[in-house]
Amino acid sequence: MKRIVPTLAAIMISGSLAYATPTHAAEDVVIVYDASGSMWGQIDGVSKIEIAREVMADLINQWDEDTNLGLVAYGHRRKGDCSDIETLIEPAPLDKASFIKTVNGIMPIGKTPISASLQHAADLLSYRDSQATIVLISDGLETCNADPCEISKQLATQGVNLTTHVVGFDLETKAHANLSCIADNTGGIFVPASNAAELHDALAQVQSAMQQQPAVLEPEPEPEEPALPEVEIKGPEQVTTGAKFDVTWSPTLGMTDIVGIVPADAEEGTRGNYKRTGNKNKNELQLIAPAETGLYELRYILNEGNKTLATAPIEVVEVTVSGPEQVTSGASFEVTWSTTIGSTDMVGIVPADAKEGTRGNYRRISNNSKALLTAPAETGLYELRYILNEGNKTLATAPIEVVAAEVIVSGPEQVTTGAPFEVTWSTTIGSTDMVGIVPVGAKEGTRGNYKRTGKSTETQLTAPAETGLYELRYILNEGNKTLASAPIEVIAAEVTVSGPEQVTTGAPFEVTWNTTIGGSDMLSIVPAGAKEGTRGNYKRTGKNTEARLTAPAQTGLYELRYILNEGNKTLASAPIEVIEAEIGISAPTIIRAGNDVEITWSSTIHPSDMISIVPAGAKEGVRNIYMRTSNKTAGQLKAPKETGLYEIRYMLEEGKKTIASAPLEVVAADAPLDDGAGLTVPTDAQVGEVITITWTGTSDSSDQRIALAGTDQPDFSWITVQPANQEKSIQLTMPDKAGFYEV
């Protein structure tokens, strides 16, 4: 009877493609389909999702219909979710149309959990008990804080016979090692491919490798039990509790045999911490030492009958931890330990009588042998602990006492509201500690206006906006405990502010004040009686005692205010009235469409104000054709192309308010208008005499001419003609025949 051999084809493309060889009907196959966001990238102008669907269709159409085929996808349902892995089709006889439809319905949006997907697919095929082959095709790397190299090692060690072939699709050369390790660790092959053609070639190589993998056959029954073979097992003589260590043996008798560590006097069949031997070509693995110290032994145990074939002695010893005998509350201090068991183990400081598993202030070990901890805020007897991540078991302790820190904080006895002031302290316990100003008697942990100490012993704080009795505090970041305090009084600042009694709407004006409390304070103009904190038009004080503000667009009674940035509190005010500006506009009342309109106005309120031409009755704020006033009182605008009634407006930049207007009618471009034109011509001249002719009016059109004709000639006919010029003066030569003529 032929044994069913599971094969796993994983299509890992971080938006990637997949392909596999035709398989035998007796095989189980699971395809793991990567639907992460980069699938929308393009190769030669074609998106990877389209290429993937076409290649998958080719793959499925070549597959034997008797094959049990399943489908797993990830990254197809949620963005940024590393757990978005789903079995879409359980392994079952292949329905090609249904399978291709399911693949085409997958939409890539998520992340690339390569490691978790390999584990998911391997578990689906019971890789610990059966042979499994994975084909991984990926154009992206792991994005879920996991290590595919490490997971492939674990799968190879724990599986009966796991092989992974990898195609690196559209990857940078420097990224190859991040995927080739998967093939290296599991006895597979790694082939890079940079485009669709190379992808097909790479898959052909993988196909060839898969066809060469022999099926695992059921062993023939033994007619009689043979003599037990000899096996040798080796490991270190000593290992620390909870540590990983290497074990080797020779030979491997069965892929489901067991290598374990057990107490030296353990009964036959005891396994302890163990792993399966797995691949016959491998004869080494890692075990984890027990948490309890003592004498142990390594054992090679036959899966059949749990019989021990080989042993080797090993001793499990403990770890030591050390630090200072005394440390001040909240201070950083160094802790060392003799050896690192696991990178996720911890060293911590806890009360001397704390329960097992208590961590207190702690750090992960990583691959170090020392770390900085922070002492608790409360004084008393404590202990340092080395704590195994496995079971939170304490492996080593050392006593340590936390004593009160001696810190002195000082500052001025008095400070004005909102003002910056200097604070000093005798010593810094921790760089994240705080110095703050709070009301006298404020609850422990209150920070008020504060700064982190850093590595300094001085800083600058800002006084509160409210007057009263306060205190400066040095506050430990650890537990928000106050270590030192000093009294300070906040008194009212004496500030005066002044400006003009009256200002026109939208106009800039000068404001002065006698002293600046803080550079972020504000000078503003607000309606009289406006709520505290109202800013209106304002400027920051900086380091100045004068500034320029802009008057509001609405007339009325206002006030100038000096406002503290701290609490938006008003320290000083002065009344000011905003009155309507008186502006006059002068311009023609009628103009041809598209002609220039000469406009003058009596005065400029603000250089950012505007002169505009808008339809008569247009809403306030409409600009259409406009220019900025700058510092001028005259300018030119182009008349609209559409005829009709318009108005010329002077519009304040402040509030876009119109304060003056004049009517303007726009007529057709060829409409006759009295432009005030006239000719100056001599009343008589001699035959052949050259006469000078001048005129008034505009000369800005190419069809304007000065013509000499006989009085009896019809319109639009002449003896001689010259175009009008900008000088408004030409010379004509009179005819050689006497008579009456006209110009």
Q: Could you explain the architecture of this structure?
A:
This protein has about 750 residues and is mainly β. It folds into seven domains: about 210 residues, von Willebrand factor, type A domain (Rossmann fold, 3-Layer(aba) Sandwich); about 90 residues, Macroglobulin (MG2) domain (Immunoglobulin-like), CATH 2.60.40; about 80 residues, Macroglobulin (MG2) domain (Immunoglobulin-like, Sandwich), CATH 2.60.40; about 80 residues, Immunoglobulin-like (Sandwich), CATH 2.60.40; about 80 residues, Sandwich (Immunoglobulin-like), CATH 2.60.40; about 80 residues, Immunoglobulin-like; about 60 residues. Helices cover about 10% and strands about 40% of the residues. It contains six helices and 55 strands. It has a seven-stranded mixed beta sheet with strand order 6-5-2-1-7-8-9, with helices on both faces. It has a five-stranded mixed beta sheet with strand order 11-17-16-13-14, with no helix packed on it. Strands 19-25-24-21-22 form a five-stranded mixed beta sheet, with no helix packed on it. A hairpin with a 6-residue loop joins strand 16 and strand 17. The longest helix has 16 residues.
Query: Which strand order do you get reading across the main beta sheet?
Result: 6-5-2-1-7-8-9
Which spans have pLDDT < 50 for at least 5 consecutive residues? 1-26
The CATH homology group name of the largest domain: von Willebrand factor, type A domain
> Class by helix and strand content?
mainly beta
